[in-house]
Amino acid sequence: MKKYITEQSMEQSDYYLKNLENTINKISLMQFEMLTDRYVNQIAIGYDSHDSYARIQAILSVQSRLQSIRNMSPIVEDIKLYAPKENIALSAVTGLGEFDTQMINEKNLKHPSQIVYSSGKLYMTISDLSPITIDPMKETPTVILEIELSIPEIENDLVQSNIRTYSGIVILRIGDQYQFTYDSNGENQFEPFLKSESEGNSNQLQLSEERNISGKSYMVIQVAASKDNKLLLQQFIPKDVIFKQVHRRAIWFWIFTVLTFVAICFFLAYNNNTIHRPLLQMVRAFKRVEEGNLETVIHHNHQDEYRYLYEQFNWTVDSLRHLIDEQYRKTILLQTAELKQLQSQINPHFLYNSLFIVVRMIKLEKLEEAVIFVDQLAQYFRFVTKNSSDMVILENEVQHAKNYANIQQTRFNNRVTLIFGEVPERFKPRLVPRLIIQPLIENAYIHGMEDKLDKGVLSVTIELNDQQLRICVEDNGDRAEDNLARIHACLNTDDSFDKETTAIRNVDRRLKSVFGPNSGLNASISRRYGGICICIIIEGEDLSHA
User: N or C: fewer beta carbons within 10 Å in the chain?
Assistant: First the structure.
């Protein structure tokens, strides 16, 4: 409340002083403009040298301007034009008269266009020789313009603009001597003290502080206009007036606070028993379920909404437990079925071609090569038909893929150069799904190397990249764009009956099922060879520590 009243009082005082200062500046500007008026100069210099018509015209024109200045603001009481050399005095109120040196106060001319308090009135006086004193021994000004300000109008405007029920004492100072003090409570016993206070603080444009005057606490609000006009407005607001209503309602406030506190205590106790505890029990049950405890059961003895929520929670957890068990069994069966499908996808052409190669080696009496080839073929079928587990260590999986590639190399003779990278020692014991590399090599031979008559390249690399284990199969086969589109279509849809692409899709699904959605297959154009590059991506935080 104190801050609000302080800001409001300061804004009101500042608004009042700015309006008053703007009015005074406008009056002063018109006063200066009058000095250059040709009719004013006609009256002030060579008045008798003109004919009667010219003199009357000049008098009426100047008086009209004087009245215009007087009418521009209620605070202008009168404006007078003095021409000492022509012995003329012209007033906006009384009209034409004779000039008398007693009409002008010497002090007024020493402060041109400034407000001067003299003989109980406020004046603004300028002359064509300002500043100058009226002295017969010195040069006499030809024209003097004097504006008399209405003190009652200024004081009334001050009261109307700034006085509120809490205003207390208001002081307006204009110039160096005039001071108007208004006490809204009708007490003027502090006026001498307040006068000295205002004089001491007149050098500060804005002030807001607390003062103790004759044992009474006041809030002092001071606003000053520009130093040229010397306008200062102070308010001494009694603090007991500001806080009168607060003090009167303090007891009721504390009574209400105590009653509110008691009511809140009762409400909190009721809320704790009927809402908080049952809700806390349900939250704890959810946390136990979140931790994987699907045997959680909660009970509620009251016949209310929580009983229904508890029963639905128990039913949901029981249903979730059954669904998870069912989904787990389905996942295991699906993975097993996919592995069986991969194992059953032994291309009969591959078997026929392999047996044909063995027969040809025997006929050509390449018995040692035939033995090695048959041994490789036996290892291949032994690994493919093994049903003990879906997961194997990476070293065995890579060895199987390498064995398959060597078999294909015998078939393709010298048409394809095989580049097979080694498995880093720290990744050799890592478990991976079975038969994830062979389908990619098989796809490369069938769709990439089949039409290569020479200079074919097939590369298999194993590396760690950004916590991702990447096993990449690259070739330099032709029709790379068509093959890439076929692989992307295979990975993005289930509507495929091609055995090779089905095997690739199954590999992608099994990798995602075991290692998460960020793992799987990624196919692109090989930057090194220009053919297809299809990578197995296995992601996991433990890869960097493998």
Answer: N
